[in-house]
Amino acid sequence: MTRTMRGVYFLEPGKLEMREVPVPEPGPGEVVIKVESATTCGTDLKAYRRGHKLFKPPMPFGHEYAGYIEAVGAGVTRFREGDMVMGINSAPCNECFYCKRGKQQLCEQLEGRFNFGTYAEYVRVPSYITAQNLHFKPAHLPFTEASFIEPLSCAVLCATYTGVQLGDTVAIIGVGAQGLMQIQLMKAMGAARVIAIGRAKGRLERAKQVGADDIFSSLDGDPLEYVKSQTGGHGADVVIEAAGTAETWTQAMLMARKGGTVIQFSGLPGGTQVSFDATHLHYGEITMKGVFHATPRTVEQAAQMLDTGIVSVKPILDGEIPLSKVEDALLRMQRSEVIKLAVVPSMAD
Ligand SMILES: [Zn+2]
Ligand SMILES: [Zn+2]
To answer: What are the residues facing 8 on neighbouring strands?
Structure first.
């Protein structure tokens, strides 16, 4: 008799379904994980609301995870049954045009290499992920925090792009999960002053809690004016946009001082056009970069940050929920009631 499990499926924008499906079996090089935590993610919310180019429903849902190795496939030597692990949901091919140019996050094979289905009791992890992006979970780290390794690995890639220097002033627009992790990374990398910009006071308090030196609510005035007033009129050395609107993309560019760096972290809906002040970009010698996803190296770094506590994700986690509450969780995220929740499949409904 085949063993079955419960898993949440994404059918179309606005529609999820709980299904009873067979427990997956590992193929060669693969592992099957008993999911202990699958954190909800802004990307899941985006897909649920309006669809997403990387999501091809109907499909199993959820992509962040930590848990126990339930079964290992032929040829897997690094992991054994019962190991506690955490990982991300893709891995590069290391053979394509972009991989050869050191841009594994832009791997041409990536779209077909995303693994979904962590909002379930068990998930199968393909061989390329098992080999490159699956890590041992430190014993002291709760599963619910370990499953942050995926969003943190993206935050780490962003941090490496900033070129932040000791003593810099960094402005971070957006105090969701990414903003709150980036505050901590910028402080760890030597920023003297991190200004967190958001709206809701509760979120901004959390920014303080994780290490922001200064907070500013856009409900209280113009963030651009504020950052200028705090930097002798110059603007910030580094600006990270993590709020996800065309307006904040424009604002981020203007917020950087001459010679400064702007990282556009948040993805906007396909076809979005953003306008910039060309004078500031050109005469101000602004460096503006986009950043997408993660690499095996930043995943490894994220594992280290979680292990050492250099990044603490506990203040970002709003609680634990059972599988049956995934849709409810996304709606709560949409209403900005919570930032992130850990779906714990063993939890009773
Ligand atoms: Zn995610
Ligand atoms: Zn590739």
So the answer is: 18
Q: For residue 63, how far is its CA from the centre of ligand 1 (angstroms)?
A: 6
For ligand 1, an ion, list residues with CB under 5 A.
Answer: 41, 43, 150-151
Hey, CA dihedral for 324, 206, 194, 259, is it positive or negative?
positive
Ligand with minimal distance to 61 CA: 1
Expressed in angstroms and rounded, the spacing between residue 328 Cα and the centre of ligand 1 is 17
> HEC string of 274-335?
CCCCHHHHHHCCCEEEECCCCCHHHHHHHHHHHHHCCCCCHHHEEEEECHHHHHHHHHHHHC
CA 178 – ligand 1 centroid, Å = 10
Quick check: pTM over 0.85?
yes
Residues 6+ apart with CB under 8 A from 139: 84
**Three-class secondary structure of residue 179 per DSSP:** helix
- Domains of the chain (ranges; CATH) run 4-148+313-343 (3.90.180.10), 155-290 (3.40.50.720)
Q: What is the DSSP letter of 238?
A: E
Query: Averaged in consecutive runs of 10 residues, what is the pLDDT profile of the chain (349 residues)?
Result: 94 96 98 98 93 91 98 98 98 98 97 95 98 98 98 98 98 97 98 97 94 97 98 98 96 98 93 94 98 97 98 97 97 94 95
CB of 88 within 8 A of CB of 131? Answer: no
Ligand sitting nearest the alpha carbon of 47? 1
